[in-house]
Amino acid sequence: MVDKEAFFQQIVAFTTAVHEVTHTFTKDIKPDDITPLQYGILEYLAVSQPVTLSQISDCKHISMPNTSREIRKLCEKNLCEKFDAADDRRKQMIRLSEEGQAMMNVAFARIGGRFLERMKGASEEEWKDIQQAMQVLHTKVFY
Amino acid sequence: MVDKEAFFQQIVAFTTAVHEVTHTFTKDIKPDDITPLQYGILEYLAVSQPVTLSQISDCKHISMPNTSREIRKLCEKNLCEKFDAADDRRKQMIRLSEEGQAMMNVAFARIGGRFLERMKGASEEEWKDIQQAMQVLHTKVFY
DNA sequence: GCATCTAGTTATCAAATGATAACTAATGAG
DNA sequence: CTCATTAGTTATCATTTGATAACTAGATGC
Questions:
Q1: pTM surpassing 0.85?
Q2: Exposure check for chain B: N or C terminus, fewer CB within 10 A?
Q3: Cα separation of A48 and A71, whole Å?
Q4: Separation in Å: D1 C1' and A91 CA
């Protein structure tokens, strides 16, 4: 049998480490004129665009009024833009503007660079192991 | 060769999933009378106590004045306590109080329960795979 | 013994975030 | 058609968090 107590300790240590590393890799990336919450929204947009306000609200756990406010600010900074959904005239779709897309490309490239830097000594086999490991955890625990 | 672009996509998707799952597993755990920041400090204490204020400040990326303030609030709520370090009379060591320890035990048990629930169908072999996967990522990427 | 450094505190201010009420407009059910 | 529901907005307020300056007390270098 597995030792569930030890297993849980391991989960805590692991998730803490993931938070810590992503934090240090991300903290000095975002431009000074956007807040952490706004950066989180832009990251979500970069991965999932186009999305509705309601989707942002659900996925990022931000109330609708606050989501509306933050999106308005991002639009004012010309980082994203709204357009009407074809199927339902109540819906507002959001996507990154060209400027926003360019900004996120730069941010992602820098973060990616840091991960690559961290793993530059890895052998072909280690890369495979790491990818395999992420796949296992992604499908079985963190989905 | 590994496809580094795809690899990075995978990292982003994976870390996002870890954040998402830990968030949903943790959000309704903390008592209403402590803030998210305070909960984070308590979690850190539970894992690393006893620690100094400076250690909390460093590890949780909170300025010393703000760390001092939050610790004072936690002490006022009887969740942690200060005591003097033996070696240096400037240092204040912090540890959970009995009440704080009890609170974190409950919180951790509930979070642990949710992970176990999520993995209740897993075979002996899958458990091994998952532990193995965490170990790989913890040592090679998230350290 | 004096200057300098480290650990922590207190007070204060500004900004970011969370929460709620009251609203408009479009959709969908009956 | 009418009523309930959904998507989003605006305004407002409270709380949380971040940032800085000015301070005390103990340690450390020389």
A1: yes
A2: N
A3: 15
A4: 25
Q: Is A3 exposed, middle or buried (0-12, 13-18, 19+ CB in 10 A)?
A: exposed
Which pairing describes strands A51-52 and A92-96: parallel, antiparallel, or unpaired?
Answer: antiparallel
Q: Is the CB of A138 under 7 A from strand D?
A: no
pLDDT one-digit tens code per residue, A88-125: 999 999 999 999 999 999 999 999 889 988 888 888 99
Mark yes or no for CB contact B129/A136 under 8 Å: yes
Phi and psi for B79 in degrees, rounded to 5?
Answer: -100, -20
**H helix and E strand count, chain B:** 6, 3
Taking one residue from A and the other from B, the number of pairs with CB-CB distance under 8 angstroms is 122
3-state secondary structure of B37: helix
Mean pLDDT of chain A: 93
Low-confidence stretches of chain B (pLDDT beneath 70): 1
